[in-house]
Amino acid sequence: DTAVSQTPKYLVTQMGNDKSIKCEQNLGHDTMYWYKQDSKKFLKIMFSYNNKELIINETVPNRFSPKSPDKAHLNLHINSLELGDSAVYFCASSQGGTASTDTQYFGPGTRLTVL
Amino acid sequence: GEDVEQSLFLSVREGDSSVINCTYTDSSSTYLYWYKQEPGAGLQLLTYIFSNMDMKQDQRLTVLLNKKDKHLSLRIADTQTGDSAIYFCAESRDDYKLSFGAGTTVTVRA
Question: What does the pLDDT average to over A85-103?
Answer without folding.
Answer: 80
